[in-house]
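Supplementary Methods. Inverse-folding protocol.

Structures were first reduced to a discrete structure-token string of length 108. This string, shown here, constituted the complete conditioning input.
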């Protein structure tokens, strides 16, 4: 297995996990039966939970997009090359964040 194939397998597995979590949150957020609690003190918690879930939902969506893009770069033979300056991305950076499209200099 080449190094990129290993990254591809890891990214694919990560994406599957994210999609499963995402589906659960999406289902919850799309559930129109959710009702605002009558009690004022419970409303605060209810709204906070909704906000947390919505933020998580948006975050997961972005990460899934980033992973899809990384898989596309692997398939196009562009993986590990900075999308901005065309330099090789440091291996340690790729190991930590395999879906990154930018080298550390361009990301900062
Ligand atoms: Zn760069």
């Amino acid at each position: 297995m080449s190094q990129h194939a290993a990254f591809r397998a890891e990214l694919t597995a990560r994406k599957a996990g994210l999609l499963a979590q995402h589906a659960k949150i999406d289902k919850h957020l799309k559930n129109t039966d959710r009702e605002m609690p009558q009690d004022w003190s419970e409303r605060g918690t209810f709204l906070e939970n909704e906000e947390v879930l919505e933020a998580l939902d948006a975050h997961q969506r972005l990460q899934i997009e980033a992973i899809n893009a990384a898989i596309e770069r692997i398939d196009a033979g562009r993986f590990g090359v900075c999308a901005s300056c065309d330099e090789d991305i440091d291996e340690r950076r790729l190991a930590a964040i395999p879906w990154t499209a930018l080298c550390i200099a361009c990301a900062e």
